[in-house]
């Protein structure tokens, strides 16, 4: 039985297979209308969401299944101090599959190690958001015809933007893909993503603070919101919040077939006037998210049916326990009393926490 914690849990072939299923659902929705009859999806959202939660729920309903869950931590027993592990064990008694969002980095991994049903990471703090990446991949595939030879600009909050971290991980596996990282210095891509994703894969990348300079070279522009809720220093957020605004004027120097993506929600980083430009694909991207989540639910339930044994991600003999402590206050290690500190040496020799991927010393 498998879970989806990080998009690289799936091979390139598996991602193509999900895209193929999603395309088939788009063409033949009736074929799938009872595919999950009798099955239940639990949506455990400890953080706000519009698209991810509702598209998961719509996905399960369109597959003929049912949904249950909560949309804020205060209405769950987490507010009384229940651990992620206990929550996962209990919800496994009521549902066949779980989609979970939490501000705690590594929360979905902890849940997957304790649930007896598949767990889908619907966003864990500033760490990963793999199902957003599934939506991004289907959009890029349908708009650009594939993934090789694309230059993608990632613009905005690359430090806290978990959708960027997950998309870079996915794109790092295709040929001749380039990344242009557009951010203020304070919000640049974390070193662990640079080392473990870009440098490890050999993906060509450049960093710039100028959207105007970058835009002419791009096949895809991935705009992101400055993530107010992740800033410890609110003055810094106020200083950086208007760093980038994509306007009709700035688009004049872009390729005619450039595709504009945004995981949404948007604050002010894309002018609403851009919505009428044929290159604006972000609302289509939100729709495609539902189809990819349908394909994902089908895959994980099929696999759980075939093999009910939980995948043990901690069976890896290279995991080192208790010798090094993760100091990330947002990591699951910091709030989940029962967790042992666990880290693993990455290929460049740096020790990283297995929950949040931050360097440990
Ligand atoms: N893109 C995304 O995750 O949106 P929500 O926060 O509304 O789920």
Break the fold down into its secondary structure elements and pairings.
Elements: H1 12-27, E1 40-45, H2 51-62, E2 66-70, H3 84-91, E3 97-102, H4 107-114, E4 119-124, H5 130-144, E5 151-155, H6 162-171, E6 178-182, H7 191-201, E7 204-208, H8 211-214, E8 220-223, H9 234-240, E9 259-261, H10 282-306, E10 320-321, H11 332-335, E11 342-345, E12 351-353
Parallel strand pairs: 1-2, 1-3, 3-4, 5-6, 5-8, 6-7, 8-9
Antiparallel strand pairs: 10-11, 11-12
Bound molecules: phosphoric acid mono(formamide)ester.
Residues 49-52, 123, 132, 263-265 line the site of phosphoric acid mono(formamide)ester (CP).
The number of helical segments is: 11
- Mean pLDDT rating: 95
Order of helices and strands: HEHEHEHEHEHEHEHEHEHEHEE
Q: What's the alpha carbon Rg, rounded to whole Å? A: 20 Å
Counting DSSP E segments of at least 2 residues, the number of strands comes to: 12
Q: What fraction of residues sit in β-strands?
A: 5-15%
The first-to-last residue Cα distance is 33 Å
List the ions, cofactors and other small molecules found in this model.
phosphoric acid mono(formamide)ester
Largest sheet: 5 strands, parallel
User: What shape does the CA trace take?
Assistant: globular
Please estimate the helix content.
25-40%
**What structural class do helix, strand and pairing data support?**
alpha/beta
Question: How is the largest sheet built, in terms of strand order?
Answer: 7-6-5-8-9
């Amino acid at each position: 039985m498998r879970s989806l914690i990080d998009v690289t849990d799936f091979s390139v072939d598996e991602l193509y297979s999900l895209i193929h299923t999603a395309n088939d659902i788009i063409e033949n929705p009736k074929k799938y209308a009872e595919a999950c009859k009798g099955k239940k999806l639990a949506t455990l959202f400890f953080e706000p969401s519009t698209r991810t939660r509702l598209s998961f729920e719509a996905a399960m309903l369109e597959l003929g299944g049912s949904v249950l869950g909560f949309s804020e931590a205060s209405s769950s027993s987490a507010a009384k101090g229940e651990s992620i592990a206990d929550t996962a064990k209990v919800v496994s008694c009521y549902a066949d599959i779980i989609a979970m969002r939490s501000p705690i980095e590594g929360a979905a991994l902890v849940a997957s190690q304790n649930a007896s049903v598949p767990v889908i990471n619907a966003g864990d703090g500033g760490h990963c958001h793999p199902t957003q990446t599934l939506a991004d991949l289907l959009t890029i595939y349908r708009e650009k015809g594939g993934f090789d030879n694309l230059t993608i600009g990632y613009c905005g909050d690359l430090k806290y933007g978990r959708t960027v971290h997950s998309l870079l991980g996915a794109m790092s596996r295709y040929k001749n893909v380039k990344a242009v990282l557009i951010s203020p210095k304070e919000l640049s891509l974390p070193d662990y993503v640079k080392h473990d994703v870009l440098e490890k894969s050999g993906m060509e990348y450049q960093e710039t603070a100028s959207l105007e300079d970058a835009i002419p070279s791009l096949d895809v522009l991935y705009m992101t919101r400055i993530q107010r809720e992740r800033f410890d220093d609110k003055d810094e957020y106020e200083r950086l919040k208007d760093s980038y605004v994509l306007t009709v004027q700035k688009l004049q120097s872009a390729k005619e077939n450039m595709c504009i993506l945004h995981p949404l929600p948007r604050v002010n980083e894309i002018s609403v006037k851009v919505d009428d430009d044929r290159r604006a694909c972000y609302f289509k991207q939100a729709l495609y998210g539902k189809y990819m989540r349908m394909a994902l639910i089908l895959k994980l339930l099929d696999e759980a049916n075939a093999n009910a044994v939980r995948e043990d991600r901690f069976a890896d003999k290279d995991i080192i326990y208790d010798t090094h402590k993760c100091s990330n206050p947002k990591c699951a290690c910091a709030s989940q009393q029962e967790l042992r500190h666990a880290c693993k040496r990455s290929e460049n020799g740096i020790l990283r926490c297995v929950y949040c991927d931050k360097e440990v010393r």
